[in-house]
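FORM 7B: Structural annotation worksheet

SECTION A. Query
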Amino acid sequence: MKKMLLLCPKFMNYDEILLDYFKDLYMVKYIDTEKYLKPTRDKYKKIPILFRAFLKYFTFIRNVIREHLLSSSNIEFWEEIKEIKNYDIVLVINGDGISDSTYKKIILNNPNAKKYLYIWDDLYLLFKKSHIKYFDKVSSYNIDDCKKINGTYQPVFTKEINTNNCKKKYDIAIIATATKERIEMAKSIYDKYKDKYKVYIYFYDKNKNFEFFCYEQPLQYSEYQKILAQSIAILDCGRYKQKGPTTRFFDALATKTKIITTNKNIIRYPIFGPNILIMDSNYNIPNKFIQNEYINNETVDTITVDIWFNNIIK
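SECTION B. Predicted structure
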């Protein structure tokens, strides 16, 4: 059986979906890159804000500093990878939590491995981008970013969802990690429509920074799927300035759930259609959007993990 090195951050059980799919195809060594990226980001944020603002204009210096911080946090990583030799495939998701020196060690120990990078965040959100050059093929969920990095556009995969006997229970669902911007938007929508629409809200707030429908534990993925299937529409809560479509757009295809979003860039993606509402600054949600029947889009389908992976390695 061939061997795969999978470097992927833990996110919404997507790492588990990948591992479950690959277990019958490869001997997989999985490493959660988030455990190296998060402490590195935290260290970088401790740099005085004025100096970080200065570094935005001197990206070479900023990249050197970030690379140094990554190298320091990757010392434990080096111990994990030193026995990883002669693998057939190296599949990396985002990969911005790994130092260039670590990538060089991986390449040196696995000279014949095919190396694939998939980016499921907007390029500007990555902590670093210098690692892109190490891969045989790069794919991204963002159409514009693909042009910048000579990559291939590939939508995010979604897990198959059983919607049998699942009736619509909520008009609008809001499920996301709590941030100031998301809380403010959700409050405005809730205050405006709480007497008109039935709204389900769940914010994951580990540090207890907010009180508005916030919980210390993230919603279980199975429960998220259930609520999605029971909702007529779900609010797309992308990260600040995020341009590519979040995974919610594709999850919603499987449950015939409409999308409410502020992402105007979505009109450029194949998934855009009558089931997607782009809100204005006043957060207007027309009654007819909620009441109208879901319209099947024959040209767009959910991307299962097998289709996603086959497209990645083509």
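SECTION C. Observations
The radius of gyration is 21 Å. The mean pLDDT is 88.

SECTION D. Sign-off
Analyst initials: ____
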